[in-house]
Amino acid sequence: MPRLVSHPDEVKIISRRFGQGAAEIDRYIELDGYKAAQAAIEKGPEWIIAEMKASGLRGRGGAGFPTGMKWSFVPKQSEKPKYVLVNGDESEPGTCKDHLIFLHDPHAVIEGTLIAGLAIGAKMGFIYLRGEYRYLLKIMEKAVADAYAKGFLGKNIFGSGIDFEVVTQTGAGAYEVGEESALMESLEGKRGVPRIKPPFPAVVGLYGGPTVINNAETIATAPHILLMGGEAYAKVGTERNGGTRLFGISGHVERPGVYELPMGFNLKRAIYEVAGGIPGGKKLKAVVPGGSSTPVLLPEEIDVGLDFDQMAKAGTMLGSGGVVVIDESVCMVEFALRTIKFYQHESCGWCIPCREGTDWLKKSITRLHAGGAVDKDIDNIRYLAENMMGRTFCPLGDAAAMPTIGFVKKFRHEFEEHLNGKGCPYEHQREAVLV
Ligand code: NAD
C-alpha cells in the first residue's frame, strides 16, 4: 500500500485532504466538501463546463484528453439516458494514485461524479473499481450511503428538485477493463473486451447512452476546480497542461511514494530532490516515466518537464503518472521481459496482433535473455513490436509494443550481451552476490 509522503515542492490540491479523516462525511464537509456541488447546482451546466475548460485539466488516466471538451461533446438532447462512469480500474504497473483518493478522499470522487452528472444532464453515475481494490469498495460504499443519508444523492438532491443516483461496482481483476469500452462491456455484465471507436462513449456509451467516462483522479479534481476557479487552477501548471497531478515515484529512489506536483515539474528534480535520489550511491540507468506502457528514458534525457507536451517532445509519454526509477544493477533485457510478460498475461485475446504479438514477444525475449538468440533476433523483436503498433482494437497492443521498441532502441548493447549462448551477465552478478 503506498504510504503518505510529503515534500515542500508539492502543491496540494487533490491530495489536500489525504490523512485528514475526510472519508467521514462530516469531516469532508468541514473541509469544504460538497460546496462545489452546491455551486454547480446553483450556477448550472454551462458554468461548470466553462470552468472545466478554463482549468486546462487533461485526463489523468493517461491519455490527457481535455476534460471540459469531453464533457461538452455529450449531446444536450438524448433519447437514451446519459451516464457518468468513473474509471477506477487503475492497473498500469507503476501506478497507485487513484488508490489513495479512494482511501483518503472517497467523497471527492462522489462529488466529482455528481458535478459531471450535472454538467451533462445525467441522472446516474457508476464508480468502477479494479477487482484488486475490493477492500476499497467498502470505503466507497459507506461514503455513498452517507451521501444518500445527507440528501446529497438520490431524489431531490440538496433540495434542488434534481435526482442523481450513484452505484459502485468492482471488476474481477483484468487489466483490459481499464480500457474505457471494455470497462463498459464489463459493467454491462459481459466479457470485458474492447469496442470499436468511434463512436466514442460521449456519444454512444454505457447501455448505448451518451457517457462521460473519466479516470478517478480527473473526476475527483472537478470539485477543487469549481472551488478555486478554473483559471486559478490552470495557472498552477503549464500552458495547455493545467493544475497539478499525482505522480507515483517508485523503484530505486530513497523516498518512494505518491507526490502531488504542478504539471511541468522537472522529472530530474522529482527523482533526485522530491524522491531523494538513488539509494546506495548507485548510478541511474533508466526511467520509465508514465507507467509501464511509456517508452523508457536514459539518464541524459530526464531534464524534462512532466507534462503531456514536453514528454511527447522527449519521445515518450506522461501516461498514468507512474515514474519507475531503475538503477545500474538492473538487466534491461530482464526488465523488458517482465514488462512483456505482464502484457501477454493481460491481453484479452480479442484481436490477433495483440494476442499473438505479445506471446511471440514474450517467447523471443525469454529465449534471448537465456542466451538462446542470435544477432538478427534483436531486429526481429523490434520488427514484431513495430508491426503491432496501431493494429489492435485497443491501446493494449501499443502499450506492449512501445516500451519494447524503446528498450531495444536504447539498450541494444545489453540485448547483444546476451546473444550466442552467453545469457544474462546480471544473473552471474546476482549469483556471485548470493555465494
Ligand atoms: P484515447 O486517446 O483513445 O482517448 C482518451 C479519451 O478521450 C477517451 O475517453 C476517449 O473516449 C476520449 N476521446 C478521444 N477522442 C475523442 C473524440 N473525438 N470525441 C469524444 N471523445 C474522445 O486514449 P485511451 O485509449 O482512453 O487511453 C490510453 C491511455 O491510457 C494511455 O496513454 C495510457 O497511459 C493510459 N493507461 C492508463 C492506465 C491506468 O491504470 N491509469 C492503464 C493503462 C493505460
Automatic annotation (TrEMBL):
Source taxon at top rank: Bacteria
Pfam families, sorted: Complex1_51K, NADH_4Fe-4S, SLBB_2
Root EC class: translocase
This enzyme's EC code(s): 7.1.1.-
BP terms from Gene Ontology: cellular respiration
PROSITE patterns from the UniProt entry: COMPLEX1_51K_2
Required cofactor(s): [4Fe-4S] cluster; FMN
Catalytic activity from the UniProt record: a quinone + NADH + 5 H(+)(in) = a quinol + NAD(+) + 4 H(+)(out)
GO molecular function ontology, one term from the record: 4 iron, 4 sulfur cluster binding
Keyword entries, A-Z: 4Fe-4S, Flavoprotein, FMN, Iron, Iron-sulfur, Metal-binding, NAD, Quinone, Translocase
NADH-ubiquinone oxidoreductase 51kDa subunit iron-sulphur binding domain: residues covered: 333-378
Gene3D superfamilies: 3.10.20.600, 6.10.250.1450, NADH-ubiquinone oxidoreductase 51kDa subunit, NADH-ubiquinone oxidoreductase 51kDa subunit, iron-sulphur binding domain
Job of this protein: NDH-1 shuttles electrons from NADH, via FMN and iron-sulfur (Fe-S) centers, to quinones in the respiratory chain.
Family: Belongs to the complex I 51 kDa subunit family.
Protein name: NADH-quinone oxidoreductase subunit F
